[in-house]
Write a structure and sequence with these properties.
This protein has helices at about 5, 15-25, 35-55, 60-75, 100-105, 105-110, 130-145, 145-150, 150-160, 165-180, 190-200, 200-205, 220-235, 250-265, 270-285, 290-300, 305-315, 325-335, 340-350, 355-370, 370-385, 395-400, 405-445, 455-460, 495-500, 500-505, 550-560, 570-575, 615-650, and strands spanning about 450, 465-480, 490, 510-515, 520-525, 535-545, 595-605. With about 650 residues, the chain is α+β, with helices and mostly antiparallel strands. Among the domains are: about 5-50, Helix Hairpins, CATH 1.10.287; about 55-90 and about 115-200, no CATH class; about 395-445 and about 610-655; about 450-605, no CATH class. The chain has a five-stranded mixed β-barrel with strand order 2-4-5-7-6. α16 (about 290-300) runs antiparallel to α17.
C-alpha cells in the first residue's frame, strides 16, 4: 500500500489537494479510536507533502543536473584518473584542533544534520523498483570510495521513489541496518543523512548502549554496532577526503585501524591507540587525521622528538590550517626552545592576526626569553580583545607579566573550593554546637534542683528534675493503673485487687504529704512504707499540674467514710466495693481542699536520653573530623591563593606550564 492509497487520492503535487485528503481521512482514522491507522495516515501525509515540495523545485534540479554531468563522469572513472580531487567529493566541515574536538565538541563542531537540505538541489533520482535493488545501490556506492564519501550520491539514493512506499521503506530500514554493520566506515555527514531518512535512533531511545569504547560490556555484535552508530551521530568524526589519493590499498582495513586508535585515544588508552595507529600508518602514511592522532599519542607520552615529524608532515599536507602550527608551538615550549616557540607564534600571527592562543603562547615565549615588557604588551593585547572578562581579574593581574588566563582560572577554581569549605565548616560547627548542647542538657537533666520556696514550686518547669522536702506522708490507698486499652486511670487499691483481671498491678501509688507547710499529692513508683512518715524526707521528681482524673479520685477518697467502724470486717468489705470511677451520691464537694496545692509531684528517677550510645559517639567523632578538615582546607586554600598572588607580582618570573 502506497501513501496515495492511504490518502485515497491519485499521485499529485497539489499541496492543497493533499491537505484536503488528509483532513477527510482524519475523520476515519481518529487518533483516539485508531492510533495505528492515524500514525500511518500521518506518515503518508508528511511523505506526500515532501514529495510535492520536491517536485516544486524541479526546475532548479534540472539546471543542476547539467552542471553536474561532467563531475559524475569523472567520478565513475576515478580508478583510472590521475586527479582524485574531482567535483563529486564534498569538502568536509572545517576541522577543529584535536584537544578541542575531545573536550568542546558541541561548541566547535556544527551538527551536520542542520546543514542537510533534502528537498533542494537534488541530483537525478535513480529508478529503483524493489528493496533488493535499493540495497544493491547502497553496496555499490559504499564499495566505490569517492561515491562513499559523496553527499550528492547518497542524496540521490535517499530520494528514490521507493522510499515513499511505507511497506518497502520498512523492509529497507531493517535490511540496510544489517548491511551497514559490515560497512560502517562512513563520514558523519552520511550517517546523519541516513538517520534523517530512517530514524533508527528513535527505535533505541530507551536503549543505554552508548559506550562504544567499552566493548566488553556488550553481548553481541549488534549491540556493539548500535553503540558505534550512536557515537557517529552524536560526536564529530574523522575526515575521509585525503584517502581519495591512496592507491592500491585496503581502505576499509586502514579505516578500521584508524577508528580503533581514535576511540582508544579518546578513552585514555594511549598504548592501545598507538598500536592500532602504527598499523594504519604502515598502510597509508599521508592521512592528516592519522598524523594528528599519532602526534597526539607521542605528546601524551612526553616523546616530543618522535611527535614533531608527524606535525611537520601534517603542516606540509595542510599548510592553511593552524592546528599543526599550534601543536608545534607546544612542542617547542615543552622542550624549552623559547626562540623557536616565539618564531612559530609570530608566523601564526602574521597569517591569523587575531588568534588569541598564539598571542598568549607568544607571551609565554617572551617571558622565557626575559623580554618582559614585550610579554606584558602581548598579555595586555589579549585583555583588550577579551575586554568583557577584565572585571574578573585584579588590577595586579592586568598590569603584571603573569598569564591572565591561568591566574583567573586558578583563582576562580580556588575560590569555589574555599566557598565549599566555608559551607562545610559552618554546617559542621552548627552540628558540633548541637551535639555539645545535647550532652550539656543531658548532664543537667540528671542533677536535681532543690525546691526551697513555694514560688519555685509553682514556676518549676515540668521537665526539670527537682528535690522536694516532704513530711507527714498519708497513704490515700489509691493506685495508678494502665488498662488493656492503654488508658491510665486511678482506682481504689482494694477495689482493683478484687478486680485484678481488669486492673493488674498498680504502676503508681498516691500519697498526700506536706511540703513547705502545704499539702501536696505525690505519685510514686514504689510504696513508701519504709520511709519515716514523721520526719522530713527529700524526694526527687517532677512537678505537674493536677489533672481531672487524679483530682476526682483524691477528693472521693478524702470524703469517703465507711458505714462501719474502720477496723471492722464490714468496713474492709465495704472498701473492696468502693469504685472511684463511679462516684457515690454522698460526696459533699467536688472541689479540692484549699490547703492542697493544685499540682502533684511525680516521684521517680530522672528521665534522660542515652548519653553515649555507639551511634552518638560515631556521629560526634565524624562531625568533629569534618570540622577540623574543613578548617584546615580553608586555611590551606586561602594560603595558596595568597602565595600565588604574591608570586605573580614579581615581574620577570616565569610561570608558564
Amino acid at each position: 500500500m502506497t501513501i496515495w492509497d492511504l490518502l485515497k487520492i491519485s499521485k499529485t503535487t497539489d499541496q492543497k489537494a493533499i491537505k484536503r485528503a488528509y483532513a477527510k481521512q482524519l475523520k476515519v482514522h481518529h487518533p483516539e479510536d485508531d492510533p495505528k491507522g492515524y500514525q500511518a495516515l500521518r506518515e503518508a501525509y508528511d511523505a506526500a507533502l515532501s514529495y510535492a515540495k520536491n517536485q516544486a523545485s524541479q526546475p532548479r534540479i534540472e539546471q543542476y543536473r547539467e552542471a553536474d554531468e561532467d563531475s559524475r563522469d569523472n567520478e565513475d572513472n576515478w580508478e583510472h584518473s590521475g586527479d582524485p580531487w574531482n567535483d563529486s567529493v564534498l569538502t568536509p566541515p572545517a576541522h577543529v584542533p584535536f584537544i578541542e574536538m575531545l573536550h568542546s565538541m558541541e561548541e566547535t563542531s556544527p551538527d551536520p544534520r542542520d546543514e542537510i537540505e533534502f528537498d533542494v538541489m537534488n541530483p537525478a533520482v535513480p529508478i529503483i523498483q524493489t528493496p533488493d535493488e535499493f540495497i544493491s545501490h547502497v553496496i555499490a556506492i559504499y564499495d566505490h570510495f569517492p561515491s562513499r564519501i559523496s553527499q550528492e550520491k547518497w542524496l540521490e539514493l535517499l530520494n528514490a521513489d521507493i522510499l515513499w512506499n511505507l511497506d518497502a521503506k520498512k523492509v529497507i530500514k531493517e535490511t540496510l541496518f544489517t548491511v551497514l554493520q559490515t560497512r560502517k566506515f562512513l563520514p558523519n555527514e552520511i550517517w546523519s543523512m541516513l538517520e534523517h531518512t530512517f530514524g533508527w535512533q528513535e527505535d533505541w531511545k530507551d536503549s543505554k548502549l552508548d559506550d562504544y569504547d567499552n566493548n566488553d560490556k556488550y553481548e553481541s555484535a549488534y549491540q556493539l554496532f548500535v553503540a558505534y552508530y550512536k557515537k557517529q551521530i552524536s560526536i564529530p568524526g574523522l575526515r575521509y577526503d585525503f584517502l581519495v589519493e591512496a592507491k592500491d590499498m585496503n581502505v576499509d582495513e586502514f579505516l578500521k585501524l584508524r577508528d580503533q586508535g581514535y576511540h582508544a585515544l579518546v578513552n585514555g588508552s594511549v598504548s592501545k591507540a598507538l598500536s592500532s595507529l602504527k598499523q594504519a600508518y604502515a598502510i597509508f602514511s599521508d592521512d592528516p587525521e592519522l598524523l594528528r592522532l599519532l602526534g597526539e599519542c607521542y605528546m601524551r607520552m612526553d616523546d616530543y622528538e618522535i611527535s614533531l615529524p608527524f606535525w611537520n608532515r601534517y603542516i606540509e599536507l595542510l599548510p592553511n590550517e593552524v592546528d599543526g602550527y599550534l601543536y608545534r608551538v607546544r612542542i617547542w615550549h615543552y622542550t624549552g626552545n623559547a626562540s623557536r616557540m616565539l618564531e612559530e607564534c609570530q608566523y601564526i600571527l602574521s597569517v591569523w592576526p587575531n588568534h588569541t592562543d598564539a598571542r598568549i603562547l607568544a607571551g609565554y615565549a617572551q617571558q622565557e626569553l626575559g623580554r618582559h615588557s614585550e610579554a606584558i604588551h602581548s598579555f595586555r593585547e589579549v585583555l583588550q580583545t577579551r575586554g568583557h572578562e577584565r572585571s574578573h581579574f585584579p588590577e595586579e593581574a592586568r598590569k603584571s607579566s603573569s598569564v591572565w588566563s591561568r591566574l583567573s582560572s586558578y583563582i576562580n577554581r580556588q575560590n569555589r573550593r574555599i566557598l565549599l569549605y566555608i559551607c562545610l565548616s559552618v554546617m559542621t560547627t552548627l552540628g558540633l554546637i548541637s551535639c555539645i548542647n545535647y550532652y550539656v542538657e543531658n548532664a543537667h537533666s540528671r542533677k536535681p534542683m532543690p525546691i526551697t520556696q513555694l514560688e519555685q514550686l509553682h514556676s518549676q518547669n515540668e521537665h526539670k528534675y527537682a528535690t522536694f522536702p516532704i513530711s507527714a506522708f498519708h497513704d490515700l490507698k489509691i493506685g495508678k493503673y494502665v488498662l488493656d486499652s492503654k488508658e491510665t486511670t486511678f482506682q481504689n487499691q482494694a477495689y482493683a485487687f478484687v478486680h485484678f483481671n481488669e486492673y493488674q498491678n498498680p504502676t503508681g501509688y498516691i500519697y498526700l504529704g506536706n511540703i513547705l507547710e502545704q499539702r501536696v499529692i505525690l505519685i510514686t513508683e514504689q510504696p513508701l512504707q519504709q520511709l519515716d512518715v514523721q520526719n522530713t524526707v527529700e524526694l526527687n521528681g517532677y512537678v505537674h499540674p493536677l489533672d481531672e482524673d487524679l483530682r476526682s479520685s483524691v477528693i472521693q477518697m478524702l470524703d469517703w467514710k465507711p458505714s462501719f467502724p474502720p477496723d471492722s470486717m464490714e468496713a474492709k468489705l465495704e472498701a473492696y466495693n468502693k469504685n472511684l470511677l463511679e462516684p457515690a451520691e454522698s460526696i459533699v464537694s467536688t472541689a479540692i481542699p484549699e490547703d492542697i496545692l493544685p499540682i502533684y509531684l511525680d516521684i521517680r528517677d530522672p528521665v534522660t536520653r542515652p548519653a553515649a550510645t555507639p551511634i552518638n559517639v560515631i556521629l560526634f567523632g565524624l562531625i568533629t573530623l569534618l570540622w577540623l578538615m574543613s578548617l584546615y582546607q580553608l586555611y590551606f586554600e586561602s594560603r595558596k591563593i595568597r602565595l600565588f598572588k604574591d608570586l605573580d607580582k614579581k615581574k620577570g618570573a616565569n610561570y608558564v606550564g
